[in-house]
Write a sequence for this structure.
């Protein structure tokens, strides 16, 4: 007899950002700004606030 292994198989998440609080687009923008322009986490926090995204600089760090 074969046991049903298919139902217990691990499936990868559909997105690299699955389970995060912020949309993937906002995360990518924050990372792009931080890496491309050498900004501080507080600078990225301010830029995101201008776009209407309330985020703490510690969250940007994480």
């Amino acid at each position: 007899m074969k046991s049903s292994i298919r139902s217990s198989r691990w499936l990868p998440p559909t997105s690299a950002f699955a389970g995060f609080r912020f949309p993937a687009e906002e995360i990518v923008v924050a990372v792009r700004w931080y890496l491309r322009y050498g900004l501080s986490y507080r600078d990225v926090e301010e830029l995101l606030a201008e776009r209407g995204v309330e985020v703490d600089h510690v969250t940007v760090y994480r």
